[in-house]
Structure formats: C-alpha cells, structure tokens
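Incident log, support desk, overnight shift.

02:14 A customer reports that sequence design results differ from what the structure should imply. Their input is reproduced verbatim below. On-call engineer (initials T.W.) acknowledged and began investigating.
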C-alpha cells in the first residue's frame, strides 16, 4: 500500500477545502481507510500500515518503491467526495479537484507548498525549489506520518471525506483515502 500517495491525497483534500486562517481549528480527523493499488508491482511497489502515532492517533508507515521513469506522458488527477454519514451510496463529488494534468506540472504546482511540508520530518521524499526532471527512482520511506492541515479553516462540516488520486503512467497507481472529521469543541 502506498502511504505517500495516500497522505498526499489527504493533504490535497485539505488544500482545496482550506482557506488560510490563523484561527485554531475546532475539528480533528481520523484515518478510516486507505487503499493504494498498483497495476504493476514490478514498476511501482507500495506497502503501508497504520501505527499508533502521537497521543494514540493513527499514523501511517510504509514505503513506495518507485522503479520507472516519469515522463511528460505520466498524468495525475484527484477527486474529493463528501458524505454526512459515510454510506457508500451517499458520497457526492465536491468541486475541489485536481484535473488531469502531467505529473511534472503537478510537482511544480503542488509539491513544495502542499505535499512536502507534511512529510519532511517523517520521510525521505525529495525537496526542490523548482522541479527539474527526472523524478528519482528510489524507495521512499515513511515513519509514523500523520499529516496535519496547518492552513485549514476554523470549522468544516462534520462527516466523511474520500480522496481518490490516480497517477497514470507505465504503472497505474490508484489511492483511495477515507477520513472522518469530527468537532473538537463547540461549533
């Protein structure tokens, strides 16, 4: 299972649901499910697991073994869904999406602002000012990562959020992340 992609998806979800705010948020989230799949484990192999993080909250550990060259034909897209009760039939798509774009464009537009800051202390993901191809073929490690949305709105609707992230290249990488938002104070 791919922790990095899942966590990236969660971060992007928060990015699109968030507005810069200095106020303290009065909600928290719980990982319910994450399911990464690879169409070819010889090109992209993933493994992830839940572990107890700080204060007993679930965190994700694992690895992504990236073995293929990303090029201008590698694409990515992300969709976010919401449900008040978490039933499969009640999820509806939110307008906060990342339309299909090249993976290179995604790295230029979102990586350093939205993804990397959440994983710099718990992974070996690459850091860069401006992405210059090629994406490194290596094993990315994650140790008890629990991304915290630091620029989230003070309040968000309680409920269930699903992030579906697809990376389409020589190996198709799909990630589904389910989280539950609950209030931590008076709303």
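02:41 Re-run completed on a clean worker. Output:
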């Amino acid at each position: 299972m791919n922790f990095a992609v899942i966590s990236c998806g969660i971060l992007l979800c928060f990015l699109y649901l968030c507005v810069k705010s200095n106020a303290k948020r009065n909600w928290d989230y719980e990982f319910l499910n994450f399911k990464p799949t690879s169409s070819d484990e010889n090109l992209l192999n993933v493994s992830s697991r839940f572990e107890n993080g700080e204060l007993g909250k679930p965190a994700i550990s694992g690895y992504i073994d990236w073995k293929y060259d990303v090029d201008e034909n590698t694409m990515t897209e992300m969709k976010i869904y919401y449900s008040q009760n978490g039933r499969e039939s009640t999820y509806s798509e939110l307008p906060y999406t990342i339309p299909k774009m090249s993976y290179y464009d995604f790295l230029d537009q979102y990586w350093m602002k939205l993804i990397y800051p959440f994983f710099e202390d718990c992974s070996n993901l690459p850091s860069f000012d401006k992405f210059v191809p090629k994406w490194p073929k290596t094993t990315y490690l994650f140790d008890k990562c629990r991304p915290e949305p630091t620029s989230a709105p003070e309040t968000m609707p309680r409920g269930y959020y699903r992030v579906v992230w697809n990376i389409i290249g020589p190996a198709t990488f799909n990630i589904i992340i389910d989280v539950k938002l609950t209030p931590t104070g008076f709303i």
